[in-house]
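Write out this protein's structure.
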Amino acid sequence: VTNNHVVENAKELYVILEGGKEVEAKLIGTDPATDVAVVKIDEPNLTVAKLGDSDKVKQGELAVAIGNPLGHDLAGTVTVGVISAVNRTLQVDGREFKLLQTDAAISPGNSGGALVNSNGEVIGMNTMKMSSGASEGLGFAIPSNVFIPIAEQLIKNGRIERPGLGVVVSEVSDELAKEYGYPKGIIIVQIARNGAADKAGLLPNDIILAIEGEKVTTLDQLKAAINKHKVGDIIKLRVWRNGKEFELPVKLQQLE
């Protein structure tokens, strides 16, 4: 398991084992949305890392980062620090990541390496750092409980299935509600042609009030409600349009 940005656009992949042996690797699947990728090698008698439960990680506990900073010449470098924060939300290239933050030194080349706890359990995958002249010690890792299910799905299917409506949406703010008399919910700003919402008959400026009877007033609530279902599932949306409420079935499609 490694980062997508490590293997992206690679024509050939090799894994270097302890002792220096190079083994050609096959790319099993990638998920740019979470920056996770899986590669496979056919090699006997490999030692498997013990995976930890990142939900149990607490601020202040020991964190050890393992990787190859600045390339293979420094392979197996270990840096030690603490967990500075858990569930840190960062926006990178328009995507949102929930990450473990550590002050263990993470450098270019560390990406895809393990972040382990005091028991030697992998609790995260080193993925990025923030640095400037004014700051140091800001490293980030994808939590194990985030990348493990992604990796398992990539191994099983070669891709990640994410159900979606095919819309650009926004939360109805207090200002919008007051000015236009809109109810609180999720307003549709734009609809993808031939997407799930388009096929179901949803229109721009429709407001989604609930999904399967569950109220949605924030984007996080909308995402959580949709992610309870699978691509191909038909879900019922409660919709407000021009002062009238109605229910509409929508068949979820793969989110591109």
